[in-house]
Amino acid sequence: MWAQLRPLILRLHFYAGVLVGPFILVAAVSGLLYVWTPQVEQVLYEDLLRVPAAEQSLPLTEQVRAAEAEIPGAQVDSVRPATTPEDSTWVHLSLPGADSDSHSSTKTTVFVDPHRGEVLGVSESYGTSGALPVRTWIDLLHRELHLGDFGRLYSELAASWLGVVALGGCALWVARARSRRARGLLLPGSGSSPGRGRTVSLHAATGVWLLLGLLFLSATGLTWSKYAGANISDLRQQMSWTTPAVSTETPAASPGVDAGIDAVLASAREAGLDGRVIVNLPADHSSPYVVSQLERSWPTQADSAAIAQDTAEVTELIRFEDHPLMAKLSRWGIDGHMGLLFGVPNQILLTVLCGGLIWVIVLGYRMWWQRRPTRAEAWGVGRPYPRGSFLALSWPLKAAVVATCAALAWALPVLGVSLLAFLLIDALIGWRSRRSAVRSAKPTETHEPDPAHR
What we know:
The chain is of the alpha+beta class. The chain has 14 helices and eight strands. It has helices spanning 2-35, 37-44, 46-49, 60-70, 133-144, 152-176, 182-186, 196-222, 227-238, 261-270, 325-338, 344-370, 395-411, 413-441; strands at residues 75-80, 89-94, 106-112, 119-126, 277-280, 289-293, 304-307, 314-318. The longest helix has 34 residues, at 2-35.
């Protein structure tokens, strides 16, 4: 079976490497830039994020009032209270007349000194993580190349093919090195001849070491994608794997009565919501406050509570420990992909992973160049592996390959469309090669001089 499949996998690995490699490379470089942006933020925005420590802090209500005075007419959406004596308080505002559809996750944030009530500055923040402009810019570069929804196709293409290319390459290398010891399989360059053989060994052995990490990046990256991500969301809905949320439908017993954000925060702390939290204000005069934990460096601090607006009593509490297993895995996977899980160790691991992926891609193109592609060879794309690998399969294997491709194309639509594009490119190159072969096979006509003119 492997003898039949190997030529097909080789050909697919070649085309995916040459044509999708640049997209994966851009994703790896931009992802590497993103990994350390939390520390970069702390340096660039220190004047907004850090304050001189003091023993006493003003009531949260006064801090919110100071933020509202900074931008008259703005409405407070949520508040992130200072966690330590050196942290500032974040007050998220909705500006009057702002277009809510332009960037629903982007918020205007006023930073307030919790001890003195002074406004430190105003900036935009993005998403639940509260990314500031530099991190947001790099995040959007990684996600969509600043091209909007169209740009998201690039990252979905990279995430869709990353796992396929990694698995295919690993299978090819393990099968090739199965007669060797583990030393030849896992040590880059071990026992390889100089030149292209050593490049292949470095490329493949490094990929084997990175395999699990690359599969993790591929799977978690797809959760943000436009088309495959929608399929994943539908699956989670059908399997009840979604993250539970507290209900905001329970009306207050005394509409119009507000216990205040300080009482609400105190109730949340008593309920065990410690660390960094965000307090979402009610949408109307009877809806509850919603308080959620924001800490992502430890995988269990993601509790949330609904707190009555009039009495500041906890009406519903959802502990992270009660989330469905798949919801927990999804949360941990996303945090791990972003470099937030366990903090700096996670960032170091992602740095090694992204750096290794960049190295593998560079070696892959070096291998391609060492085959000396020319314009005469497939328009400079290089010499792929022999054609006809699919037609040479047995009928059961043909059916299995078609069914696997159809399933992948349904689950990962961008992969399916790009695979069809590969087939068209391959067919076009094959047609051109056949034409060139026919032309070169035609006998050269020779013309003998007419005897009358001798």
